[in-house]
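Q: Could you write out the predicted structure for this multi-component system? I'm mainly interested in how the pieces pack against one another.
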Amino acid sequence: MIRVLFVCLGNICRSPMAEAIFQDMVNKAGLGDLIEVDSAGIGSWHVGEPAHDGTLEILKKNKISYNGRARQIERVDLDDFDYVLAMDREVLQYILRSGTGATANIALFLMYAKQAGLVTGDEVPDPFYDNTFDRAYSLIQRGCMALLHHIRHAEGV
Ligand code: 4NP
């Protein structure tokens, strides 16, 4: 099993969006039994809450379902997961600081999409403050495509 964890600040906007989109792609590729997908936040503010309405609306518009609840990342996640993907540098730095000795491959989520020329930046700006859920969706969709391509190649699936 290849385990993939998406991480943002609150686990209500960006990382649940990535989890839902990536899960949908994995399912459509027939890899649901091989790749496990989850998400978490570095903060505890929203633990137990459903995703933000903005995330749920844009997912619904794209016919993708999501019913996860927010959780906070734990140190053990950095050994349990194979890929831990941060939505921005603040999140990446937090994970790296707390993850000494971790076995996961820890990176910026958009790194693969940037390498593939699908995006120009390597961070997903937080839609929480300015409601830019359309922009987040577009970036995350491209990020997930490139990530799946990378994992299929790297893991031979
Ligand atoms: P997310 O967005 O990290 O994409 O889930 C945020 C959600 C909540 C907060 C910040 C960012 N907050 O400060 O509560």
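A: Regarding packing and overall arrangement: The mean pLDDT is 98.
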